[in-house]
Every structure is written in C-alpha cells, then in structure tokens.
C-alpha cells in the first residue's frame, strides 16, 4: 500500500538518495514542520521524498529497525518504508510505524505537538487511542534543541611574534667559544608563523650554535629548528 502511494505522489516531489543526504534531508523536514529531530531515527536510508503540494513524504531504509527512546522507555518499530502526510507540528495517515504496548505491537497513524503546550507530543492509533509524552524525549541524540551557529572554516593563521633580545647577551658554540653577540636592548626581529609547527625568525637554537665564522647576522632570517 505504501509503495503505491509513493508512486502516486512521486511526480513533482523532491527526491533524495544516498544515506548521508537522506539523513540530512529527513532532519530538515522535521525541523521545517516543527517536530522533534529525533522522531525518525532511521538508519542506512536509501531514499527520501517530499511532495510539497500534497504534503506527502516517504522514507526508505535498507531494512526495518527497532529503536528505544530511553527517556520514556518505549520501543518503536520502523518498517523499511515509512510514509505520512505532514503539516505544521503534525504527521498524519502514517504507515510503517509501530510502538510496543503491553507486549503487543500497535500501529501508529498520527503524531502531533500540542498547540496549547508545545513541550508535549501525542501519538495516536487508527482507533483513536493515544498517549502523550514530553517532546524532549524525542530530541536528536546529542542535541539540546537549540540552533547552533556554524563553525568558521579553519584558515592559516598569521601571527607576528616579536623577539626582543637582552642587551649584549652572548651565545656559545659547542666548543665553548663565543659565537655571536646579540643586538642591544630594544632591538627586535619579527617571526611570522604561516603554519603550525614552523616559523622563520632571526634566532638560534641554544644547542646548535654556529661558530663566529659561520654565524648569521641577526638581521638574516632562518628557520627555527625543532626542539629535542
């Protein structure tokens, strides 16, 4: 029955395929109609469709699954194909969704967020029987219900470091001889870090100091060696 309805509403519908894209679009759909984002925890989805003109939606996953909503201790079964008609804060004429009630699987046909109390959501069977639960029990795992700002993409950071050398400080080479005399107090050289772990600066590693003959004047730029 569900598949026939899908084909009847496929013309003019938005159709998405692929697990990652389907998961994204199903979450967008729930957000658009103001329903909890964890309401349809389907896995390995193969197709999601939404016909906006009729309000008909369908979600197809590789195989049926049973999910436990821990906050309320309820098991819900989702068939390989789930269909419904959606409107603001509501899914009606649903197929493919059942809940366990006193060891018996009961079909759910309608779910809606209460108009007078948006912190409550009600589920009903085709016979009209229903139960009401907190909306928070169906929040997406790890989601607090608040919209989070998108993180800015990582970019190369340019940091200017000024290295001020002590007045007439002396460095010594491995032979114990005087290697280089630094500039007077107030002299400085700039190092620009273009990527993590690498910098250019007029400074020497104290464990590997060149001799006076090979010493580079402080105004010259060289690469900082790695600490050992």
TrEMBL record:
PANTHER family: OS01G0210600 PROTEIN (PTHR31676:SF201), T31J12.3 PROTEIN-RELATED (PTHR31676). Signal peptide: none annotated. It comes from Panicum miliaceum. InterPro entries: At5g01610-like (IPR036758), DUF538 (IPR007493). Pfam families: DUF538. The lineage of its organism: Eukaryota, Viridiplantae, Streptophyta, Embryophyta, Tracheophyta. It comes from the Eukaryota. This is DUF538 family protein. SUPFAM superfamilies: At5g01610-like.
């Amino acid at each position: 029955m569900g598949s026939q309805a899908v084909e009847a509403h496929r013309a003019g519908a938005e159709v998405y395929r692929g697990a990652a894209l389907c998961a994204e679009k199903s979450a967008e759909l729930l957000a658009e109609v103001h329903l909890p984002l964890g309401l349809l925890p389907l896995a390995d989805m193969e197709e999601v469709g939404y016909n906006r003109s009729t309000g008909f939606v369908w979600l197809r996953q590789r195989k049926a699954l049973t999910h436990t909503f821990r906050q309320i201790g309820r098991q819900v079964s989702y068939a390989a194909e789930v269909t419904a008609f959606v409107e603001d804060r509501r899914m009606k004429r649903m197929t493919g969704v059942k809940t366990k009630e006193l060891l018996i699987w009961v079909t759910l046909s309608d779910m809606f967020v209460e108009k007078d109390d948006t912190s409550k959501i009600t589920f009903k069977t085709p016979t009209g029987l229903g139960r009401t639960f907190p909306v928070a029990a169906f929040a997406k795992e790890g989601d607090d219900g608040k919209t989070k700002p998108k993180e800015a993409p990582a970019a190369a950071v340019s940091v200017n470091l000024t290295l001020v050398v002590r007045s007439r400080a002396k460095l010594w080479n491995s032979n114990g001889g005087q290697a280089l005399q630094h500039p007077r107090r107030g002299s400085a050289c700039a190092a620009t870090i273009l990527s993590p772990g690498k910098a250019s600066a007029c400074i020497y590693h104290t464990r590997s100091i060149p001799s006076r003959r090979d010493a580079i004047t402080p105004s010259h730029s060289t690469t900082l060696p790695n600490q050992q």
